[in-house]
Amino acid sequence: MSLRFVESSKLPTQWGIFDIHGFEDSENQKEHIVLTLGDVSTGGPVLGRVHSECLTGDALFSMRCDCGPQLQAALQQIAAEGRGALFYLRQEGRGIGLLNKIRAYKLQDGGADTVEANEKLGFHADLRDYSMCKVMCDHLGITQLKLMTNNPRKVNALTEHGIDVVERLPLRIGENPHNARYLATKAGKLGHLFDH
Ligand SMILES: Nc1nc2c(ncn2[C@@H]2O[C@H](COP(=O)(O)OP(=O)(O)OP(=O)(O)O)[C@@H](O)[C@H]2O)c(=O)[nH]1
Ligand SMILES: [Zn+2]
């Protein structure tokens, strides 16, 4: 694995003072981070969120998806528990990048669903890779995760990379009229479970 730890510092947020840990992938120059709160290296399973970058949802308040509310809810829940880790992976647009995601949005404006749009552009529906999480967990001393996600394929991928996901906690938040079709496609074609 070409990921290496670079540096850690404090990161005060509205939910508490987290530690931010920066990692760099020397193969593709991607910079990934983990926010941690409390002692994650001892004391049993860590409440975790593995979040893929969504500039439009995480930073620009887009209602086309549920990413922004999920990010905020995850940080809030980690703060409420007093201990946890948020992995922020720089794989925008399920791995196709920001500009291709805008191309995919344009196709969705014309009637395609999120999977069809990716395929029309010549991409697989989901190109994400979670292998870097193992290096990050090992560096931080995290051995077990209670993972906040609706995506069982993410749990399987992390497990295949040697991360012990002991529990999946649903993270159902941020539904609105603009993302109803998108969420339905995630459930129907990408295997997301929108249970409580
Ligand atoms: N290609 C593409 N990517 C999208 C689209 N909408 C959101 N994304 C990206 O999808 C990623 C988030 O994936 P989601 O499927 O929403 O959720 P997940 O991470 O699989 O599952 P959860 O853990 O339940 O949130 C981010 O990288 C977003 O940028 C879209 O229409 N097309
Ligand atoms: Zn999003």
UniProtKB/TrEMBL annotation:
InterPro entries: GTP_cyclohydro_II (IPR032677), RibA (IPR000926), RibA-like_sf (IPR036144). Zn(2+) binds at residues 54, 65, 67. Keywords: GTP-binding, Hydrolase, Metal-binding, Nucleotide-binding, Riboflavin biosynthesis, Zinc. It catalyses: GTP + 4 H2O = 2,5-diamino-6-hydroxy-4-(5-phosphoribosylamino)-pyrimidine + formate + 2 phosphate + 3 H(+). Its EC number is 3.5.4.25. Binds 1 zinc ion per subunit. It is an enzyme of class 3 (hydrolase). It holds the Pfam family GTP_cyclohydro2. Transmembrane segments: none annotated. Pathway: Cofactor biosynthesis; riboflavin biosynthesis; 5-amino-6-(D-ribitylamino)uracil from GTP: step 1/4. GO terms for cellular component: cytosol. One of its GO terms (molecular function) is GTP binding. Its cofactor is Zn(2+). GO terms for biological process: riboflavin biosynthetic process. Residues 8-170 form the GTP cyclohydrolase II domain. The active site is at residues 126, 128. Belongs to the GTP cyclohydrolase II family. Catalyzes the conversion of GTP to 2,5-diamino-6-ribosylamino-4(3H)-pyrimidinone 5'-phosphate (DARP), formate and pyrophosphate. This is GTP cyclohydrolase-2. The lineage of its organism: Bacteria, Pseudomonadati, Pseudomonadota, Gammaproteobacteria, Litorivivens.
